[in-house]
Amino acid sequence: MSKKFWDEKFEIMNDGQMKAFQRDKLEETLKWVYERIPFYKKAFDDKGVKPSDFQKLEDLAKFPFTVKTDLRDNYPFGLCAVPMSDVVRIHASSGTTGKPITGPYTADDLDQWTECMARGLWAQEVRPDTVLQNAYGMGLFTGGLGFLQGAMRIGCAIVPSGAGMTERQIMLIQDFGTQALCCTPSYCMTIIEKAEKMGIDIQNSTLKTGHFGAEPWSVEMRSDIERRGGMHAYEHYGLTELMGPGVSFTCEYYKIHINEDHVYPEIVDPATLEPLGLEEEGELVFTAVQRRAMPMIRYRTRDICTLRREKCECGRTLITMDKILGRSDDMMIISGVNVFPSQVESVLMEFEEVEPLYQIRLKKKGYMDHIEVDTEARKEIYDAGREKIDELAKRISSRIQQVIGINVPVNIVPQETIERSIGKAKRIIDER
Ligand code: DLL
């Protein structure tokens, strides 16, 4: 019988032992960055803290935060603590503007990351005999190689298809008997839609599991992928600054467990930066517990989330996080209401008549922001004519009003108008 946990020692470690482990490693890490990275030395000194002020986990709150602009200001390797001779890989996030964020790894960092990925995939039914198709972008993006490494460690039969060429992805699934599919959830939707159009019964294909991440997606989207794709839709979360995917993963009960022996999580109020407690919603902040090339200290992710410490039926004791609500940068304030694209997505997905495709157009009306939602309907709706289309748009709009509390015009745009994603979907079009 195969083992239940990939790494029993850490995955079911008791709270006291985990805290002691984190404390010891964080103490080393704080010292490591203070002695090696001028940026951290200055930041700690400016705040009047020394690594020796860290005695217990709560003391971490005394230390300064790190933000994305710190990485930009120190581009490319100003926050790297080791010489290039100790660096074995450099990833980077594409970044929408300006220079990318760099992610250097030592051989040991790479090994830790690989272990985190293997842990997650193992929890998601992946085994050595699994045929795993990796359709994340291969290259600088951490998704492709992160999943490759984890799957290699387990010993899967890996199909490194990379992102895009959707018809070929479908052919590979059929011909190679792919059981596990790794890609963004929006790309999985693109694959499912394409297969349905090609008349292929993807629901009854060999696919058993999906390993999705890199962008926010609603629970409703997950159910839709499971139903139409005939697979369990699991999740991975992470970011380039911390290692890439592998920060957390869902178990079979859809609880998102954080690899807290590698990344120490906190939640803070994004406005006051005061620490918040368990079960309170705020910004996720992570500190690298044992990385060596570029260990981030109290890194503000901008991701809005809630942490929970509750018993999970899977047996893992690793702390859990809720699904990411969205990025604080993607939060829109419409008529005084805070709105994330994922909330709009949840409402849209209640409607069987619409395709899981949408874009939010952010506009200015006088001094106020307002939004419109574009989505596509199922073929039957277009076939039924204008009246049916208008009636559907009205129903969705009134449901958004009911659930989110704002008035949002909904446009059912012609078929194939909304760009199909092969990676991270672009949900907001800023037309202000
Ligand atoms: O997206 C790493 C990754 C690759 C994670 C593959 C999972 C799977 P970045 O490109 O640096 O790294 O983007 C990181 O993406 O701060 C979140 O805003 C968002 N994100 C990542 N995973 C999720 C998720 C990778 N499961 C940024 N749910 C993060 C919601 C996610 N948002």
According to DSSP, the number of beta strands is 21
Largest sheet: 13 strands, mixed
| Percentage of residues in DSSP E strands | 25-35%
Number of domains: 2
CATH class of the largest domain, named Alpha Beta
- In the CATH hierarchy, what is the superfamily of the largest domain? ANL, N-terminal domain
Q: How many DSSP helices?
A: 12
What is bound: which ligands? 5'-O-[hydroxy(phenylacetyl)phosphoryl]adenosine
Radius of gyration: 22 Å
Estimated helix fraction: 25-40%
Name the overall outline: globular
Q: Residue ranges: pLDDT <50 for 5 or more in a row?
A: none
CATH-defined architecture of the largest domain: 3-Layer(aba) Sandwich
**Average pLDDT over all residues:** 96
List keywords for this structure.
Rossmann fold; 13-stranded mixed β-sheet; four-stranded mixed β-sheet; 12 helices; 21 strands; 32% helix; globular; binds 5'-O-[hydroxy(phenylacetyl)phosphoryl]adenosine
What does this structure look like?
The protein is 32% helix and 26% strand. By secondary structure, the protein is of the alpha/beta class. It has 2 domains: 1-327, Rossmann fold (3-Layer(aba) Sandwich), CATH 3.40.50; 332-430, GMP Synthetase, Chain A, domain 3 (2-Layer Sandwich). Strands 3, 4, 5, 6, 7, 8, 9, 10, 11, 12, 13, 14 and 15 form a 13-stranded mixed β-sheet that branches. Strands 20-19-18-21 form a 4-stranded mixed β-sheet. Strands 1-2 form a two-stranded antiparallel ribbon. Helix 8 runs parallel beside helix 9. The longest helix has 22 residues, at 15-36. The N and C termini lie far apart (58 Å). The chain binds 5'-O-[hydroxy(phenylacetyl)phosphoryl]adenosine. 5'-O-[hydroxy(phenylacetyl)phosphoryl]adenosine (DLL) binds at residues 93, 136, 142-143, 213-216, 235-240, 244-245, 301, 303, 324, 327.
